[in-house]
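cron nightly-structures :: item 1 of 1
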Amino acid sequence: MDYQSLYDEFADKALADIKLSKKFAGANEFNSGFLFGTDDCNCASMKQMQRNWADAAPGLFADFARKLASGHSIETFDLPSTSRWKNAGFGYIADGGKHACVMLWPSIDHSPLNHTKSNSMFWAFELVENGEVDDVYLVWLADKANVKLRERLGCWYESSSPRGVKHVSATDWFERTFGKEEADRLTDVAGRVRTEGRLVQGFTVVALPTEHELGSFRQERLRDYEAIELPLIRYRLMGRGMSERDIDILSRNIQRKDLFEILFGQASFAVSFLSSEWRYRLNTLSENVEQTGTVAGYIKAIEQMMFDLLPLWANRDYKVAFGAVKARNPAVPLTPALLAEKDKEATLGPLAYLFASYQHEYFNARIYDPEIDYKSFRELLFGRLRSFMDNTRNGKLHKSNFYDLGKVREIRDEVLDIMFMLLGGLRLDEEQLKYLDGMRAQGESSPDDLAEMAKALNEGLDGLTVSSIESAHLIAIEHHDDTHLWSIALSIMGDGIDSHNSYYYSPLRGLSQDEELENIDRLFRRYRSERCASDALAEVLTEYVVFSVKSEPFHVPLQ
């Protein structure tokens, strides 16, 4: 039997129900109450969710599991009509016994397991004691890795299991009943429904990786760069007219010293690049995901990379000019002091001309490997930079959102080509190589790495202006757990923006609750009094990063 078709049918039904209801009050409800969520909703939110979603997840999941059981030749039967939860479960015969299962929300605090005789626990005991089944599985729609679920159910399990009532996660029950392969499929389909469901609901949530995830992702991208990206870059550049000899020289330069590791290191451009790669991987799950933030991160990565490379030639008798060389803008000696002064002026356009235009030959003729065909190389690099600027800066980024995944792939290819040419094409001595070594990742990922990535992930909302926003709310949330974090959210609707529920929090700064609350109050005061609201929003967005939340917010309307 084609079991995959059953999983697809379940996912399609779940998404259809979400589209019909579309009444979740916020992303915290969706993440908490739906399949395999790990956080608890408050009581009002849970009741609202159960009212609004007519085909509630437990009933939908029970119907799916029963069809799968039949497909595995497991005989099933209806639960007694007197059961309060008969539509969320079924009976089945396996391993020489009669069993019953009932599907429950992952929210522990607001489950049916209260202390009334009408709840599932008492009904389950009664079913076993009356001899109708040998045991009852209370199947929580959660993953077996859910630590909170295991801890909270421990005492219940010890007291109820001897009486024939067993608490299990959905993935554990699937593995026990149908095998590990089916449990893995279940995890995959749950992820698909969560991802696509958020899109239906209009949530844009970009998860900040943990330290372990960031380290693993960095290593994964390093492996992929050598094995996958380098051959593709080579193919694209040959197609654009670069000679095989020059490509060999660039490849030798970038691989001989493992310079490509710098792309995933700790320099500012590497953080921006890795952040966009993280966002790109998440967003390629669906063509409908808005990709403006991904593109903005790639733009910043190229700008920062060229600027971060300039210290290689500081105090070495090089001159530069950011913009056309004129009497009012002469080329001046390249020094650390000049770089500090020009930090804000050195944007993508002037830097592209400095590194690749014949107008700045006084500088760029000296920085590239003398073995390559310099003029052809410079012409191709300038062409890639101009194409990149046209694709990302021609009014597209700030006037409309990116939803075309094919166009985003083109932009990403341009970024990879440009980075390869810049790193592989440079003429570097030992002192300069030592400077680049300092840009590599140093050991394991740290909280500081995450903080820098948090800032980079905010790039996607730079294009917001007051005139483009129809309504907006700043939301402050206190996390009631051991982390003592406060969160801020910005929820906006406006021209060309469907709806964003983007949750921002202070990334691992180690502040106390009082300090964090004081900081939030300061932001709110500025937000309320600032004559230019976009400046106030910009300040918020530079300090907070997209994440999920789990507490009731309070709203401060846009003035």
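cron nightly-structures :: done
The longest helix spans residues 211-239.
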